[in-house]
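pasting input
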Amino acid sequence: MPFIVNTDQDRAAMLDRIGAGSFEELLADIPEEIRLHRMLDLFPSLGEPEVRRLLENLSMQNRSTADYVSFLGAGSYDHFIPAAIRTITSRSEFYTAYTPYQAEVSQGTLQAIYEYQSLMCRLYGMDVANASMYDGATALGEAALMAMSITGRSSVVVAGKLHPSSHHVLKTYLEAGGRRSIVQNTIEDGTGSLDALNSLVSSETAAVIVQQPNFYGCLEDVEQIGETARKHGALFIVSADPLSLGLLEAPGNYGADIAVGEGQPLGSAQSFGGPYLGIFAVRQQYVRKIPGRLVGMTKDRDGKDGFILTLQTREQHIRREKATSNICTNQALNALQAAVYLSLLGREGIREVAVQSAGKAHYLAGKIAALPGYALKFSRPFFREFVLQTPVPPPAVIDRLLEKKMFAGHDLAPYGDEGLLVAVTEKRTRSELDMFAENLGALR
Amino acid sequence: MNFPEDLRYTKDHEWIRLLADGSTAVVGITDFAQTELGDIVFVETKPVGTKIREHEVFGTVEAVKTVADLYAPAGGEIIAVNGALDSAEVVNRSPYEEGWVIRMKVDNPSSVDALLTADAYRQLIGE
């Protein structure tokens, strides 16, 4: 971080340059009654060593996955991040760049985004991916708006158990536009009921939305749900965990019209909840309705390959209030992390991460379910996350396991739900899993 | 620039031609509009069967640098969309013939007479 000096002399020089007599003169247009007329009520100033000590002491109170064994998931996962990612993404050419506005001079940035888009298309089995969105939840909100714009219909049906935070963001997105509604399907044994869904989807439905794996970690019957959407001319929106696609079918292969996802598992640190990465991909026929930025490949007049921002005419700096969306930015650095992560791991590596995460999750689930007082809440198949019924309330489990330097999982009570949501990644070792089960078994 | 005498024009740079049956019409964009827009890459309209009111947006024309709305010169129903627009540059090449955009059934054919004549349109664009 640079230290920016601002001496009396500097201030005098700046005022002189703009022709103002004093700083007060600059504030002349601000009405008297809203001026503060006193100093801000701040702590007394500290010297640099004192500030450093204060902040270090504060930061030492943090408990992180660096020294705790984490079973936290619920949308943010403790997957291993190879050092090469940091090495590449921390290059200043990438690290200091924002989304490309004067785009074509930044060929490297555009190429990185183009590679990211291509990788997302392959991973999700879709035709076109954009340069990314803020996070998985906003990508889902944009997908719903896009489906409404394509179909001219104003209601979406959530077919299964969506992450409550995503549901909230979706609601915020749709509320702003007037008569739009979200219909929630009935949840049975941890997944959406297909029978109930049939009666909820109609010719008024713009899109049927499903999260795979769902918030509980369970696998929804995505093929049947997609079938129901098609039957009524609704679009099929799938929010899929990118790493789950190392094992599970790609959304494009079971009929998704729009595929979105939270890209954090692909090489982004959990870092208190962000910045994350919104993955957004569509079928070719909807390319002109896609929100956000798109990078394309072309040839210059000498016949050399080059990269450009494409279809900008639908964006807000040209289309103003008629733009396809108000998003004109992307998460370039996180997208780069995802691109490097996928390139490093390759097809085999991604599969390996998914297989190990799922295998370890199932090993642990089996072990815990055998403990007295514990049970899996749902019987449906799951990927790397599952809900436990516990003999003592989840907050107590979490507190007691913190003493053992373990993050036990996510208490579902704040969502008006019950249970402990436990996630297992490939990073967990056999002994960590055994120790976790042992610690749980010892709780009374 | 070419502005055929048998057409009527709007201030938004569409043209409309009433056919012999008196209520079917063909609609497109003017020579002036296609020149101003430059290379047209995509034309999108509401689907056949859509009812549109006079001056309502019924589609968009996308050029390399911008996207313009298409406004209905008259109220009625879209009965055909030009399949040749899959190669949208046809609008640049032949705005009044091959590059027509929609055919419509006009609700009130006399409303078409109230639109601009070729001369009035020429005046509007300062020719």
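fyi Chain B touches chain A at residues 42, 44, 62-67, 69 (CB under 8 Å).
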